[in-house]
Amino acid sequence: MPAPVSLDALLPAIVARRDAPGIACVLFEGSSITWSGAAGIRRLPNVSPRPLELTVDTKARVASVSKIATALTLILEAQDGRIDLDADASAPLGFQLRHPRFPGSPITARMTLSHTAGIRDADAYRGVIGESLEGFFHPDGVRWNAGRHWAGAGHGTPLGWFAYANLGMGLVAQMAERLSGERFDLLARRRIFDPLGIDCGFNWSGVPDAKVESGATLYRHSNDGPWTVQVDEAPHLLPRPIVAAQAGLDVDDYVIGQNGLVFAPQGGLRASVMDLAAIGMALTGARPLLTERTRAMIAEPVWTRAPDSSNGDASGGSFRAFGTGVHIVLPDADGPVPGLQRPLIGHYGDAYGLLAGLWVDQATTRGFAWFLTGSPSAPRPGASGIHAVEEEVMQAACQQLGLTG
Predict the structure, then answer these.
(1) Tens digits of per-residue pLDDT, 349-366?
(2) What does the buried/exposed string (b/e) look like for 132-160 if buried means 16 or more CB atoms within 10 Å of the residue's CB?
(3) What is the pTM for the complete model shown?
């Protein structure tokens, strides 16, 4: 097991060696924050008179950690009895969803939540107002792209085969919209963020002006060159929520249930590590949102990697198990945290230079949330299929929380 490294020492060390311009992290148990810290900056001098300090309250685009909140919008509909996650998803989607190779086999909401629906990312998964989500999945659709969004013969039997797909989150968001009658970003606020007392939002939706202006810009650097802006250089100057639209259209023209990708359910949540901690507390039951039965259902593995990876794309070993809307880190020798005592549920985030994670141990109600505001274009690889800096943070946090032995 690696020698213990305190987060107090690790965070500034990560910034000093230019693995990130800034990093924030919080540890929690039950409904209490047990440790918090930040180092480095949220914005560089090229877009402000001086470097601006990163804090644990700074909001950033948290990439795929967003998928936890997206999943919860639909899981709460299931908790309320408005959808059966194991039934054909076509009716709540508003169009028939079938893999072209298996037209007689229904695709369910749980398949999309666990990335076992035979869907994959192809050329794009951006939502545009004026286009329909259906256009990705049907031969006459504008985003069909010769069916490349469907896993093919090279993937064995696509239904049940794990293929991590951002595109599937558009399906989840669209189902949630149509079941609730609400726009996805507003639904997430009403069902998740407001009850938890947090002011985060998808594509900055509903985030107070001051929090947007003090948000983090994300960066990358190549070959130890200067940090280069990737996203959110000046979001306070743009209409919010930030969306893509056909010419002549804007957010007011969006039709609920037409295109679940528009508000970036796959990765567009802007949140602080404190916001993420509140979501983590909901996953453990320390803050009220989910029933005990729902929490157990989420954490039950839907897919577990076969020893030879014949049942899915494990992405170099980083994917070993997946539940209903959450990634599962297993306590085994090949995982990112040596000596881990119990499984963790949560999600990684990796986009536009940001690296992040939200992880909880439901048994102890302990967990942690963290993000970097940038990274090298080719971060150092770790031993478990994720980046080395991710392993460092996860190991230090788990050791400090007493989750390793």
Answers:
(1) 999 999 999 999 999 999
(2) bbbbbbbeebebbeeeebbbeeebeebbb
(3) 0.96
